[in-house]
Amino acid sequence: MYSGSPEASGRSTNNNIFLPKLHFVYIIYSKKIDRYYVGETHNVEKRLILHNNGNYEGPFTKIANDWRVVLKFKCVNRSKSIFLKKFIKRMKSRKFIEKVIQNPEILSDLLTKKY
Q1: How many CB atoms sit inside 10 A of residue 95's CB?
Q2: Are 27 and 37 in contact (CB under 8 A)?
Q3: CA 26/CA 111 separation, integer angstroms
Q4: What are the CB-based long-range contacts (under 8 Å, 24+) for 3-12?
Q5: Where's the GIY-YIG domain (predicted)?
Q6: What is the per-residue pLDDT for 113?
Q7: SS3 content of the chain, % helix, strand, coil (to 5)
Q8: What residues form DSSP beta bridges with 18?
């Protein structure tokens, strides 16, 4: 989606000007275990492959191999994506996750209040 763009790579676009790498908060869902997982990365597609192949570091997603992306939310930098990921996880609520999936603008509102 964004591969090759200066925003995705963090490459210089003009002499010494660097644009930050875009990051994403993502929510994946496994029908097999009926669970959601929230993460952040700059490459959601690659991360999904790692989750489904059991090659991801964390043990939680290794118990299923049918993960699919249900939300991909673009952030301008990693600190904002980490903030959102931690906020969602702190809620410890499936209901909240499903609300965010249905209304992603909730995440925009959180960033507006935080930053």
Answers
A1: 8
A2: yes
A3: 15
A4: 3/43, 8/42
A5: 21-98
A6: 83
A7: 45, 25, 30
A8: 12
Residue 52: give its domain's CATH number: 3.40.1440
- Closest C-alpha to 27, from 71, 59, 65: 71
Task: Tell me what the mean pLDDT of segment 14-21 comes to.
Answer: 67
| Contact in structure between 81 and 75 (CB atoms under 8 Å) | yes
From 28, 35, 21, 30, select the one nearest 81 (Cα to Cα): 21
Whether 42 is in a domain gets the answer yes
- Considering its fold, how many domains does the chain have in total? 1
Instruction: Show the beta-strand stretches assigned E in the chain.
Output: 12-14, 17-18, 23-30, 35-41, 68-75
Asked whether residue 12 is assigned to any structural domain, the reply reads no
The answer as to whether 4 is a domain residue is no
What pLDDT was estimated at residue 8?
43
Question: By percentage, how much of the chain surpasses pLDDT 70?
Answer: 82
Alpha-carbon distance of 22 to 24, in angstroms, equals 7
